[in-house]
Amino acid sequence: MAASSAPEEAPRITRLELRRYAPPIGLLLVLAVATLIPAGLQPPELRLASPDRARVDQMRAVVAGLPSSSLVLVGFDPDLGTYPEIRATVRAVLDDLTSHGARLAFASFTAEGRALAAAEIDRLGRRAEAGGTRPEMLDIGFISGAEAGLVRAVSSIVPNSASGALAEAVRARGGGIGAFDLVVVVSGGDLGARSWVEQVGPRLPSIPMVAVAPTFLEPELAPYLRSGQLKALLATLREGVAYAEEVPVAGAPRDRAIPALPMLIGMLIALGWLVVIIMQRATGRLGPGAREGRLA
Amino acid sequence: MRRSLSSAATVVAGLLILLDLLVVNPSLGSAAGALQELLVLLAASAAVGGSATLVARHVRHLAGASPDRIGSIVLLAGMGVVLAAGLRPGSAGASDPIVLWLVAALLVPLATALFAMLFFFLLAAARHGIEAQGREGVVMLAAAMIAVVLLLPIGGAPGDWLATAADWVRSVPLAGVFRGLLIGVAILAAVTGTRILLGVDRGSE
Q1: Does A222 contact B100 at a Cβ distance shorter than 8 Å?
Q2: What pTM was estimated for this model as a whole?
Q3: Residues linked to residue A74 through DSSP beta bridges, in sequence order
Q4: Contact at CB, B103 and A118, closer than 8 angstroms
Q5: Does A276 touch chain B (CB under 8 A)?
Q6: Residue A35 domain-assigned?
Q7: A84 and A220: one domain?
Q8: pLDDT of residue A4
Q9: CA-to-CA distance for A175 and A159, rounded, in angstroms?
Q10: Does the interface ipTM go beyond 0.85?
């Protein structure tokens, strides 16, 4: 008996599952297809870049003002959740620095930041193998102790095990954060640009600091930009896209592409969804009392 | 007595760090540096302790009748693989190419894939929010809708208008609320810190 009832159950369960999962899967497919459309075929009316270029110009001016073969410390502490928003901007900043001959040292004070830094360093290495520019890099790695570790790094940041020309160059200038010509803080995690301004700024007031941060940190960091404690700040997607458009593309340009069309489609779907559920709420089909009403 | 000792240690450590920031003195700098080293060691010990606790918990799950034994196995295997890659003889530790590969090729893509689902989770959460909270949920979703409209990636004059409006929202009402919160938190932290430094915090007594 059991064997004969099983084939009748199976199609109903599959149909139910299909009904439940079809919308998100369909949405995913639509977004994937939109992502694959080349930038040249996308409508010219779409634009993601910020029309206000003030912050872009500030960042470009700081990078352009660096001395030749400058030492730049990248404090890489974004978080996994918001890194997609600033990934393209960070890559553009690294390209900009590299094209100005800067030598880059990566240090992270959070575990998530370290994981993402490892992935970026790996990407830069792979791009160099594929024929792109290989920046001179030093992987300082993870520094434990959070803000205490950051304060300690002011006097000593290069691990004893680090070797190579760049490590020696930093040691020759004192071995601490003060050895660098510029600090680029990639924010998003627990230890971001605010911690750098608070902890490193008073101890090394002559070191210029710039930051790349996701939008949610903009209200927190904007005052530091106005006060001059940060020399430049890119903290919204629009600013990041505008900056990436200004920086000459080095290596694989797809690394930096943020297509506007899939973003627009996703936003319109989200808007449509929000309108539908607000309408359902307004007509009483959704809300705290709706279920009881239906049951009654 | 024990509480008084811990309060005294907190006061001494706090004052030392404060004085080191205010006064340039090599001896003071050395003492503050030693304290920082101690803090770094404490943080590292806490991380190791946390990892050990996590391992112990999941070993217990495996030994018992936990419903998520596969999850425990995956977690312990993942930790084991990374530890083996970093601690094997001849390894460069956290900077070892195998560790970097594990992180860059497995950990980051997996985490990114999980976070990519946020779009769907947020849409589902919006519906649940309306179901559970009613009016508050509607206000929150209306604000979300305004934010999405202001960020629409369109060009020309409408796009410029939207970008200007988005900048205004971010730098006036949003920044006002955010800074109010930050200033409130900073005042609270300063008051709490002062109470601890002066030894008047009843909570620590």
Answers
A1: no
A2: 0.83
A3: A106, A184
A4: yes
A5: no
A6: no
A7: yes
A8: 47
A9: 9
A10: no
